[in-house]
């Protein structure tokens, strides 16, 4: 059984600590509060990632991040024998822009892939696709600070024409804790999730 204890721990933390809630926007929908239901047809666009409001300590100007998305409920929430399934790994994310709501004093900091990077796409985004008749699945997003010297290309698929296109077999029963340890990532900085079917 793959280990995903760190993902479970951060999900428990976001229930009580808003500074750990990852900003997540899919299409025109902000995933607020965590656990919001989104029909799978509306969850197809590549998600926009934002740092948590009030993140402490604030990000360094040179900080880079890695985001991972996983489905813990495959193929069915009552029988998750294939889960967790990896849906996305994107590295080389940097602070792109900040916008504020002057009335509330809220600052939203959006992340994007760094210019001049290898693209950082270790596993392309797969939108939700639970089987017919399934209850909603939980799609968790986990943000790590990317360590200095991290090379996303060493984790990408190596076959010609397959860069960042990880096959389905490698995505099933994915052990996030093991991969994060091998990749030299630290603790999960922030998380969020939505449900979909």
UniProtKB/TrEMBL annotation:
Database matches in InterPro entries: PEBP (IPR008914), PEBP-like_sf (IPR036610), PEBP_euk (IPR035810)
PANTHER family: PHOSPHATIDYLETHANOLAMINE-BINDING PROTEIN, PROTEASE INHIBITOR
Coiled-coil stretches: none
Gene3D superfamilies documented for this protein: PEBP-like
An MF annotation (GO) of this entry: phospholipid binding
GO terms classed as biological process: regulation of proteolysis; regulation of Ras protein signal transduction
Full protein name: Phosphatidylethanolamine-binding protein PEBP
